[in-house]
Design brief:
Length: 243
């Protein structure tokens, strides 16, 4: 596992994925801040009003797309020049290959989440919002990251099977709207993209009850286990088509 992780991390050297990790949170925050500024006469809840605007664009759209981009990127080199054939023929378990890619994606998204939280604090400070920085937003950010782990396992399964870089990203975008629909239908705990909305308190800042909080962590853990197991089993039973 350690060797696989080191190999995956080495592939990211001199890559431009960090630029994407920075640009998408910045763009989403700028859009949210502009929307907040233009509607500040209506949005009167300070830090929390700002969160509703920036997290809506970031957590609902930009973050799922960012996860899909990271998953496609870590699989991109393996789909070229028959690298999959060499990798699967090496003395490394299939589970290690998948888990290493998933761990790398998880760390990349953790970086994006930390950057987003820092930018949110900076924006609130520049707007001179009243009151102290709401520490619960850190918890919302970390819950969003944990929900991202389930989405990452979901997206990585598609990126492993599909050679196209853009197709898994399109699937992610479609899944966003499915997740939004399930959230509105009060079925958010049944789909990982809806869990991201719940975890980051994108559409509602109401505190989760103890049972809801437990269900959130349990559901995400279950999705991670199921999606990872399905992808690993498929890698073991079917050849990967590489170009």
């Amino acid at each position: 596992m350690k060797r696989s992780f080191s190999a995956e991390w080495l592939k990211l050297r001199h890559s431009r994925i960090v630029l994407v990790l920075v640009v998408l949170p910045v763009i989403s925050l700028l859009i949210g801040c502009a929307n907040y500024w233009l509607n500040r006469g209506v949005l009167q809840d300070g830090w929390y009003s700002l969160w509703t605007q920036v997290s809506l664009f970031y957590g609902e759209f930009f973050l799922p797309i960012l996860i899909a981009i990271c998953c496609s990127y870590v699989c991109r080199l393996d789909h070229l020049n028959r690298n999959w054939n060499m990798m699967l023929a090496s003395p490394v378990s299939v589970a290690s290959v998948f888990l290493a890619k998933w761990a790398v994606v998880s760390l990349l998204i953790l970086f994006a989440q930390a950057l987003f939280a820092a930018l949110y604090w900076l924006a609130g400070t520049l707007f001179s919002l009243p009151g102290a920085f709401p520490v619960e937003t850190i918890g919302w950010t970390m819950r969003g990251w944990y929900a991202s782990l389930a989405i990452g396992a979901w997206q990585l399964g598609f990126s492993l099977r599909i050679r196209s870089f853009a197709t898994p990203i399109g699937i992610s975008l479609c899944s966003v709207f499915i997740g939004l629909g399930l959230y509105v239908a009060k079925l958010g705990f049944l789909f990982p993209f809806s869990l991201l909305t719940i975890g980051m308190s994108v559409l509602s800042q109401d505190k989760l009850t103890n049972s809801q909080n437990l269900l959130f962590w349990f559901a995400n853990t279950g999705f991670i286990a199921v999606f990872a197991s399905m992808s690993i089993r498929r890698l073991k039973s079917k050849d990967v088509v590489s170009s």
